[in-house]
Amino acid sequence: HFASGQANVEDRNNDFYTINEGLRFLRGRTIDSHDNIVWVSDLNYRVSLSNLEASRHAREYIHQGNIEALLHHDQLIREMNQGNVFPGYKEGLITFLPTYKYDVGTDIYDTSEKQRIPGWTDRILYKGGQLRQLQYSRAELYTSDHRPVFALFEADVITLDKEAKFKLQKEIYQSLSSIEVRQHPPELPKRKMTAPLPATKDPLVDVLIDISLDTPSQRLPPPSTDKRKWWEDGEGLPKADKTQVNTQNPFEEDLSNSHLTDGSLI
Protein backbone atom coordinates (compact mmCIF):
# COMPACT_ATOMS: atom_id res chain seq x y z
CA HIS A 1 0.00 0.00 0.00
CA PHE A 2 1.84 3.07 -1.29
CA ALA A 3 1.31 6.59 0.00
CA SER A 4 -2.20 7.94 -0.47
CA GLY A 5 -3.22 11.41 -1.60
CA GLN A 6 -3.86 12.84 -5.03
CA ALA A 7 -0.62 14.84 -5.25
CA ASN A 8 1.84 12.49 -3.48
CA VAL A 9 3.33 10.97 -6.63
CA GLU A 10 6.94 11.33 -5.52
CA ASP A 11 6.17 9.68 -2.18
CA ARG A 12 4.68 6.73 -4.03
CA ASN A 13 7.78 6.44 -6.19
CA ASN A 14 9.95 6.46 -3.07
CA ASP A 15 7.80 3.73 -1.53
CA PHE A 16 8.63 1.48 -4.46
CA TYR A 17 12.40 1.91 -4.05
CA THR A 18 12.21 1.52 -0.28
CA ILE A 19 10.47 -1.84 -0.62
CA ASN A 20 12.40 -3.01 -3.67
CA GLU A 21 15.81 -2.34 -2.13
CA GLY A 22 15.00 -2.98 1.52
CA LEU A 23 13.21 -6.32 1.33
CA ARG A 24 15.66 -9.18 1.95
CA PHE A 25 15.22 -12.92 1.55
CA LEU A 26 17.44 -15.86 2.49
CA ARG A 27 21.14 -15.62 1.58
CA GLY A 28 20.87 -11.85 1.08
CA ARG A 29 18.65 -12.08 -1.98
CA THR A 30 16.49 -9.13 -2.99
CA ILE A 31 13.36 -8.81 -5.11
CA ASP A 32 15.51 -8.22 -8.20
CA SER A 33 17.40 -11.48 -7.53
CA HIS A 34 14.42 -13.42 -8.89
CA ASP A 35 13.79 -14.38 -12.51
CA ASN A 36 10.08 -13.55 -12.49
CA ILE A 37 8.46 -10.88 -10.32
CA VAL A 38 4.81 -9.86 -9.91
CA TRP A 39 3.60 -6.87 -7.89
CA VAL A 40 -0.06 -6.97 -6.81
CA SER A 41 -0.88 -3.93 -4.72
CA ASP A 42 -2.89 -0.86 -3.96
CA LEU A 43 -0.25 1.42 -5.45
CA ASN A 44 -2.51 4.47 -4.99
CA TYR A 45 -1.53 6.22 -8.23
CA ARG A 46 -4.38 8.48 -9.30
CA VAL A 47 -5.66 10.27 -12.38
CA SER A 48 -4.17 13.78 -12.56
CA LEU A 49 -7.34 15.81 -12.79
CA SER A 50 -7.62 18.04 -9.78
CA ASN A 51 -10.76 20.13 -9.67
CA LEU A 52 -14.43 19.33 -9.24
CA GLU A 53 -15.24 20.05 -12.88
CA ALA A 54 -12.53 17.58 -13.91
CA SER A 55 -14.12 14.97 -11.67
CA ARG A 56 -17.42 15.51 -13.46
CA HIS A 57 -15.71 15.11 -16.82
CA ALA A 58 -14.07 11.92 -15.58
CA ARG A 59 -17.44 10.47 -14.68
CA GLU A 60 -18.77 11.40 -18.11
CA TYR A 61 -15.84 9.57 -19.74
CA ILE A 62 -16.65 6.52 -17.64
CA HIS A 63 -20.32 6.70 -18.52
CA GLN A 64 -19.39 6.87 -22.21
CA GLY A 65 -16.89 4.00 -21.81
CA ASN A 66 -14.06 6.30 -22.88
CA ILE A 67 -11.45 5.06 -20.42
CA GLU A 68 -8.57 5.98 -22.79
CA ALA A 69 -9.20 9.65 -22.06
CA LEU A 70 -8.69 8.98 -18.34
CA LEU A 71 -5.69 6.68 -18.83
CA HIS A 72 -3.99 9.52 -20.66
CA HIS A 73 -3.80 11.26 -17.26
CA ASP A 74 -2.88 8.16 -15.22
CA GLN A 75 0.03 8.95 -12.89
CA LEU A 76 1.58 5.45 -12.89
CA ILE A 77 1.66 5.18 -16.69
CA ARG A 78 3.26 8.62 -16.89
CA GLU A 79 5.89 7.86 -14.20
CA MET A 80 6.81 4.51 -15.76
CA ASN A 81 7.15 6.06 -19.22
CA GLN A 82 9.51 8.66 -17.74
CA GLY A 83 11.58 5.96 -16.01
CA ASN A 84 10.83 7.25 -12.53
CA VAL A 85 9.43 4.05 -11.05
CA PHE A 86 9.17 0.27 -11.71
CA PRO A 87 12.04 0.15 -14.23
CA GLY A 88 11.85 -2.89 -16.50
CA TYR A 89 8.29 -3.76 -15.45
CA LYS A 90 5.27 -4.21 -17.69
CA GLU A 91 1.54 -3.84 -17.20
CA GLY A 92 -1.17 -5.50 -19.20
CA LEU A 93 -3.59 -3.46 -21.25
CA ILE A 94 -6.20 -1.85 -19.00
CA THR A 95 -9.67 -2.43 -20.45
CA PHE A 96 -11.67 -2.24 -17.23
CA LEU A 97 -13.23 0.70 -15.38
CA PRO A 98 -11.40 2.56 -12.58
CA THR A 99 -11.26 0.55 -9.36
CA TYR A 100 -11.47 3.47 -6.90
CA LYS A 101 -13.33 5.09 -5.19
CA TYR A 102 -16.81 3.58 -4.75
CA ASP A 103 -19.52 4.07 -2.23
CA VAL A 104 -19.29 0.78 -0.37
CA GLY A 105 -21.78 -1.82 -1.55
CA THR A 106 -22.71 0.06 -4.74
CA ASP A 107 -21.58 0.66 -8.31
CA ILE A 108 -21.54 4.42 -7.65
CA TYR A 109 -18.28 6.34 -7.51
CA ASP A 110 -17.54 8.56 -4.52
CA THR A 111 -20.45 10.83 -3.68
CA SER A 112 -18.87 12.22 -0.53
CA GLU A 113 -17.88 15.84 -0.11
CA LYS A 114 -14.42 15.11 -1.52
CA GLN A 115 -15.83 13.76 -4.79
CA ARG A 116 -12.59 11.85 -5.49
CA ILE A 117 -11.72 11.40 -9.14
CA PRO A 118 -12.13 7.74 -10.18
CA GLY A 119 -8.79 6.09 -10.85
CA TRP A 120 -6.90 2.81 -11.14
CA THR A 121 -5.22 2.63 -7.75
CA ASP A 122 -5.08 -1.19 -7.73
CA ARG A 123 -2.53 -2.58 -10.20
CA ILE A 124 -0.61 -5.67 -11.23
CA LEU A 125 2.87 -5.20 -12.68
CA TYR A 126 5.29 -7.92 -13.72
CA LYS A 127 8.83 -8.54 -14.94
CA GLY A 128 10.45 -11.71 -16.29
CA GLY A 129 11.24 -13.40 -19.58
CA GLN A 130 9.25 -16.52 -18.65
CA LEU A 131 5.97 -14.70 -17.93
CA ARG A 132 3.16 -14.09 -20.41
CA GLN A 133 0.02 -12.32 -19.24
CA LEU A 134 -3.17 -13.87 -20.57
CA GLN A 135 -5.78 -11.84 -18.69
CA TYR A 136 -5.98 -8.61 -16.71
CA SER A 137 -9.26 -7.45 -15.21
CA ARG A 138 -11.15 -6.59 -12.05
CA ALA A 139 -13.55 -8.53 -9.84
CA GLU A 140 -17.01 -7.16 -9.09
CA LEU A 141 -16.93 -7.41 -5.30
CA TYR A 142 -18.77 -4.87 -3.12
CA THR A 143 -17.25 -5.27 0.33
CA SER A 144 -14.83 -2.35 -0.06
CA ASP A 145 -14.56 1.07 -1.63
CA HIS A 146 -12.16 -0.59 -4.13
CA ARG A 147 -12.70 -3.20 -6.82
CA PRO A 148 -9.94 -5.83 -6.60
CA VAL A 149 -7.95 -6.68 -9.71
CA PHE A 150 -6.68 -10.05 -10.93
CA ALA A 151 -4.43 -11.39 -13.66
CA LEU A 152 -3.74 -14.73 -15.32
CA PHE A 153 -0.18 -15.61 -16.34
CA GLU A 154 1.46 -18.38 -18.28
CA ALA A 155 4.97 -19.18 -17.05
CA ASP A 156 7.85 -21.39 -18.14
CA VAL A 157 9.10 -23.41 -15.19
CA ILE A 158 12.43 -25.21 -15.01
CA THR A 159 12.15 -28.54 -13.21
CA LEU A 160 14.98 -30.62 -11.77
CA ASP A 161 15.66 -34.12 -13.11
CA LYS A 162 16.66 -35.73 -9.81
CA GLU A 163 17.70 -39.03 -11.40
CA ALA A 164 20.05 -37.32 -13.86
CA LYS A 165 21.42 -35.12 -11.07
CA PHE A 166 22.20 -38.14 -8.86
CA LYS A 167 23.90 -39.94 -11.77
CA LEU A 168 26.04 -36.90 -12.56
CA GLN A 169 27.02 -36.45 -8.90
CA LYS A 170 28.07 -40.09 -8.73
CA GLU A 171 30.20 -39.82 -11.88
CA ILE A 172 31.92 -36.67 -10.61
CA TYR A 173 32.60 -38.26 -7.23
CA GLN A 174 34.12 -41.36 -8.83
CA SER A 175 36.25 -39.24 -11.16
CA LEU A 176 37.58 -37.08 -8.32
CA SER A 177 38.23 -40.14 -6.15
CA SER A 178 40.29 -41.73 -8.94
CA ILE A 179 42.39 -38.56 -9.34
CA GLU A 180 42.94 -38.38 -5.58
CA VAL A 181 44.19 -41.98 -5.44
CA ARG A 182 46.64 -41.42 -8.30
CA GLN A 183 48.04 -38.25 -6.81
CA HIS A 184 48.03 -39.36 -3.19
CA PRO A 185 48.14 -43.16 -2.94
CA PRO A 186 47.07 -44.43 0.47
CA GLU A 187 49.82 -45.35 2.92
CA LEU A 188 49.96 -49.02 3.77
CA PRO A 189 50.24 -49.91 7.45
CA LYS A 190 53.84 -50.25 8.51
CA ARG A 191 54.92 -53.50 10.16
CA LYS A 192 57.23 -53.28 13.09
CA MET A 193 60.43 -55.14 12.19
CA THR A 194 62.38 -57.03 14.83
CA ALA A 195 66.13 -57.38 14.81
CA PRO A 196 67.35 -60.69 13.33
CA LEU A 197 68.95 -63.31 15.48
CA PRO A 198 72.75 -63.37 15.55
CA ALA A 199 74.09 -64.77 12.31
CA THR A 200 76.47 -67.30 13.86
CA LYS A 201 77.82 -70.56 12.57
CA ASP A 202 76.81 -72.33 15.77
CA PRO A 203 73.39 -73.78 16.46
CA LEU A 204 70.97 -71.48 18.23
CA VAL A 205 71.21 -73.51 21.43
CA ASP A 206 74.94 -72.87 21.50
CA VAL A 207 74.52 -69.10 21.69
CA LEU A 208 72.04 -69.00 24.54
CA ILE A 209 73.36 -66.73 27.26
CA ASP A 210 73.65 -68.29 30.65
CA ILE A 211 71.61 -65.96 32.86
CA SER A 212 72.28 -68.05 35.94
CA LEU A 213 75.71 -66.53 36.51
CA ASP A 214 76.18 -64.61 39.71
CA THR A 215 76.89 -61.09 38.47
CA PRO A 216 75.62 -59.08 35.47
CA SER A 217 79.19 -58.59 34.26
CA GLN A 218 79.58 -62.37 33.92
CA ARG A 219 76.45 -62.54 31.80
CA LEU A 220 77.49 -59.80 29.36
CA PRO A 221 79.86 -60.28 26.39
CA PRO A 222 82.98 -58.12 26.10
CA PRO A 223 82.44 -54.76 24.38
CA SER A 224 82.47 -54.74 20.57
CA THR A 225 85.15 -52.92 18.56
CA ASP A 226 85.47 -51.59 15.01
CA LYS A 227 86.97 -54.94 13.99
CA ARG A 228 84.74 -57.31 15.88
CA LYS A 229 81.09 -57.28 16.83
CA TRP A 230 80.02 -59.79 19.40
CA TRP A 231 76.61 -60.37 17.85
CA GLU A 232 78.12 -61.44 14.53
CA ASP A 233 80.15 -64.43 15.72
CA GLY A 234 78.73 -65.06 19.15
CA GLU A 235 82.22 -65.38 20.64
CA GLY A 236 82.68 -64.15 24.16
CA LEU A 237 79.10 -64.91 25.12
CA PRO A 238 78.83 -66.91 28.36
CA LYS A 239 77.26 -70.05 26.92
CA ALA A 240 74.56 -72.01 28.64
CA ASP A 241 75.23 -75.70 29.38
CA LYS A 242 73.75 -77.60 26.44
CA THR A 243 73.38 -80.73 28.50
CA GLN A 244 70.84 -78.93 30.67
CA VAL A 245 68.85 -77.47 27.78
CA ASN A 246 65.57 -79.24 27.09
CA THR A 247 65.31 -79.37 23.31
CA GLN A 248 61.97 -81.16 23.25
CA ASN A 249 58.93 -79.26 22.02
CA PRO A 250 56.84 -78.71 25.17
CA PHE A 251 53.65 -78.87 23.12
CA GLU A 252 54.33 -82.39 21.84
CA GLU A 253 52.88 -85.19 23.99
CA ASP A 254 55.02 -88.12 25.08
CA LEU A 255 53.18 -91.07 23.67
CA SER A 256 55.83 -93.67 24.52
CA ASN A 257 53.96 -94.89 27.63
CA SER A 258 50.46 -94.46 26.18
CA HIS A 259 48.25 -97.46 25.43
CA LEU A 260 45.32 -97.82 23.10
CA THR A 261 42.27 -99.39 24.69
CA ASP A 262 39.10 -99.90 22.69
CA GLY A 263 40.35 -97.38 20.19
CA SER A 264 40.86 -94.77 22.93
CA LEU A 265 44.12 -93.08 23.82
CA ILE A 266 44.95 -93.29 27.53
From TrEMBL:
<dbReference type="GO" id="GO:0016020">
    <property type="term" value="C:membrane"/>
</dbReference>
<feature type="region of interest" description="Disordered">
    <location>
        <begin position="215"/>
        <end position="266"/>
    </location>
</feature>
<dbReference type="GO" id="GO:0005737">
    <property type="term" value="C:cytoplasm"/>
</dbReference>
<feature type="compositionally biased region" description="Basic and acidic residues">
    <location>
        <begin position="225"/>
        <end position="242"/>
    </location>
</feature>
<dbReference type="Pfam" id="PF22669">
    <property type="entry name" value="Exo_endo_phos2"/>
</dbReference>
<feature type="compositionally biased region" description="Polar residues">
    <location>
        <begin position="257"/>
        <end position="266"/>
    </location>
</feature>
<dbReference type="GO" id="GO:0043813">
    <property type="term" value="F:phosphatidylinositol-3,5-bisphosphate 5-phosphatase activity"/>
</dbReference>
<dbReference type="GO" id="GO:0046856">
    <property type="term" value="P:phosphatidylinositol dephosphorylation"/>
</dbReference>
<dbReference type="InterPro" id="IPR036691">
    <property type="entry name" value="Endo/exonu/phosph_ase_sf"/>
</dbReference>
<feature type="domain" description="Inositol polyphosphate-related phosphatase">
    <location>
        <begin position="1"/>
        <end position="161"/>
    </location>
</feature>
<protein>
    <submittedName>
        <fullName>Inositol polyphosphate 5-phosphatase</fullName>
    </submittedName>
</protein>
<dbReference type="InterPro" id="IPR000300">
    <property type="entry name" value="IPPc"/>
</dbReference>
<dbReference type="InterPro" id="IPR046985">
    <property type="entry name" value="IP5"/>
</dbReference>
<dbReference type="GO" id="GO:0004439">
    <property type="term" value="F:phosphatidylinositol-4,5-bisphosphate 5-phosphatase activity"/>
</dbReference>
